[in-house]
Amino acid sequence: MKRFNKRSKIIFSLIICTLLFIFFCVIVGVYCGNKRFIVKSYKNEKISFYYRDTLLLDSVFPQFSHYQVKICGSPHIVLNDKKLYFPNPECIDTTDLKLKISFFNGSDSTYKTVYVRCWIDGKYSLNECTDNPIWEASKFKHYYDVFRNLLGKKSRETIVALGDTLYSTLNGRFELISEAGIKECSSLELESFEYNQAIRGGEFQFLRTENKLYVSKDDFRNYKLIYDDRRGIKESMYWDVERNRLVFSMYTPGSVRLRHYLISYDPVADKLDTLQTFYTSQEHKNDGKTPYCRHIHLICKDPYSGYMFIGIGDYDDEPGIYYSKDGGETIHCLGKGNQLWRTLSFFFIEDYIFWTNDSESPQYINRISRSQLDNGLVDDKDVVRFPIFNSALWCNVNYNGDLYLVGSNSEGQFYDDFHRLYGLSFSEDGIPTVYNLIEEKSLKDKTNRIIYHQIAPLCVDFNGFIWCYDTHLGLRKFELKESE
User: Fold this and answer.
1) DSSP sequence for 297-325
2) CATH architecture assignment, domain 124-156+234-482
3) What is the CATH number of domain 48-117?
């Protein structure tokens, strides 16, 4: 009996050891399998996001939206509701930080690397100048507008640049301002605070203000109205050098859906022609007509290729980006169908093309390489996206060739209730840097909703001063300072 008990104990121990060994092998096998899977499927996908923004994982990693997520590499980053963010941005003291994100579902796992690039707040700053003639009045803009209208004064106190020349109505008359001084041009009136543009084409100058488009050969001492229908936004004219003609677009605000056109103007023959028709989304839905949009946001010239780039909006599948190699005779669709392709600003460098988003959706600085232009439609997944801060990004002004000024209004408010003026620069290898130049708290109405507010950059004058239109305060003037 004792022998039997001893043998039983030995057999029992062997069974237990065998089971433990089998269990251990299974665990090790699964673990090794996972480890092999991780190594095999590892992709060092570089994604930049700025540390004062939130990164929506669903938008960057849609294939992993149903996975659980682990964050490795930084105790300062928090994951909440599938959003990554820095609760205390000041704790980050580097402009490059590797963050490893692990995705796992059952026995399958993979991980990706996010390169976190911090905003550089200290490099540049803006000093506001209070010497412009309407500064005191603009602080009480509402009352000033009423007073001006009682006097029957229609011209807006604003400014528009044409190279190193400025056209201004700051003193209540249409003036040309240059280093040589100020001279009164004519009785021409600027009818918009912010929707003005002037360009040169050959021996001609063109000025667009609200829905009017003028041509002149003598800096608007004499001028002719050539178009008086729908307005543009900020960049809505392109000079076609090869055909010696102006190309311009049209924009219709509000919810109305109308056809929009690219129109050419031959200043020698004094002739307007329709180049391209953009149909309404309803016409596309009913009859399949393309291209279609709600309105045209901008047209502008790529200084490297000479191509004309076209941005259209606005909702659902209406947004898109087109380009033309022949001054609008033919157009090619770069991408279309969602808010990724909705823009008011393009930025061009030698090897890359960038654009920002005019959307209440999460914002990005988007990038493609020039080699992608001739490959047909660009797939969304082939656009490199650099998440930026929270609100819709407006038109841009170039400061000195390397630095661009971009306003961010108070729509969206994904992170806070500030409107901003940014500086953007781009390295040769296609990495953007964001400078936070101005941030001001937006007001709220009685229902606690954010009131629309924007500081829109208008131009940089020959002295290097930056002129902006503030939707609440009117014209503002700044001087850019670089930290030593």
Assistant:
1) EEEEE-TTT--EEEEEE-STT--EEEEES
2) 7 Propeller (2.130)
3) 2.60.40.1080
Q: For 6, list phi and psi in degrees, rounded to 5.
A: -65, -45
Give the separation between CA 460 and CA 457, rounded to whole angstroms: 9
Dist. CA 148–CA 154, nearest whole Å: 8
Q: How far is residue 16 CA from its own chain's centroid?
A: 65
Contact 344/358 with Cβ under 8 angstroms? yes
Dist CA 64 CA 387 (whole Å): 18
Return d(Cα 60, Cα 393) in angstroms, integer.
20
Chain segment 156-201, per-residue pLDDT in tens = 578 888 887 888 887 767 888 777 777 777 778 888 888 899 999 9
Pseudo-torsion of CA 279, 281, 283, 284, nearest 10°? 90
Question: Nearest-CA neighbor of 113 among 96, 88, 131, 94?
Answer: 96
CB 383 within 8 A of CB 368: yes
Task: Enumerate residues 6+ apart whose C-beta is below 8 A from 36.
Answer: none
Closest CA to 217 of 264, 168, 179, 267: 267
Residue of 108, 120, 132, 127 whose CA lies nearest to 36: 108
Q: Tokens 């850019």, residue?
A: 480
Spatial distance between the Cα atoms of 345 and 311, rounded to a whole number of angstroms: 8
* Residue 21 predicted with pLDDT over 60: no
Alpha-carbon Rg for the chain, nearest whole angstrom, is 29
Please return the burial class of 367, using the count of CB atoms within 10 Å of its CB with bins 0-12, 13-18 and 19+.
buried
**How far is the C-alpha of 333 from the C-alpha of 340, rounded, in Å?**
14
- Percent of the chain whose pLDDT exceeds 70: 68
The neighbour count for residue 264, using CB atoms within 10 Å, is 21
DSSP symbol at 208: E
Tens of pLDDT, residue by residue over 64-103, are 555 566 666 566 677 776 677 766 655 554 445 666 666 6
Give the start-to-end residue ranges of the domains of the chain: 48-117, 124-156+234-482, 157-229
